[in-house]
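Running this now, will post back.
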Amino acid sequence: MIINSENLNNEKKCLLFINGNPPENFPNLENYGLICGTDGAFHYLKKMNFPLEKLDFISGDFDSVSDEILRQAQNDEFEIIFTPDQDKTDFEKALEIIQEKGFSKVDVFGGSGGEMDHFLGNLTVAFKFKNKIEITFFDEFSQYFFIPKNFIIKNVNGKLVSLYPFPIAENVTTKGLNWILDNENLTMISKIGTRNFAVEDEISIEYEKGDLLLFIGK
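Update: finished.
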């Protein structure tokens, strides 16, 4: 899948695991310049035999990690970063560390599934960081991310495409979708743009005001 937007560049990305549903498969680790996780994700990484030597750091308040696991982690070659601030989620604190390390692209696994308040919280954190870090979530159904005002994505013919206003997106125009939007407004409480699909290899989305969360099905 090829993505083009006004923001994207070719710098190396960060891979972040957080405490939702574990990925079915791990992505190619060679595509990432930084690999990390929150303490909640550390449980499934160990259970799935993730190569811990590939981790750069694990961060969090470590309220969900036993002392035994913490002692084991200290013997591995990755950094343990204690972030006790209870006014922020472990996901938000991990993004702050990633930004401090100079990365502005992050692929996130484990952002959905489990308790739904966590999922909504993760979307809210991503919205907060959308102008600082390009965050793409991956789960067993789709990838999803906030898009800029002018956006093109290729190699999507036949794929599910959902547009979700957050909370509004005004004057939305699309090309390449089965149900076309032509200068229409989307809002959480009226019309949303979910469960559409691409009928062309390339689709484009433009809007003038607000924010859009885009879901691309597998």
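The helical segments are 39-47, 67-74, 90-100, 116-129. More later if anyone needs it.
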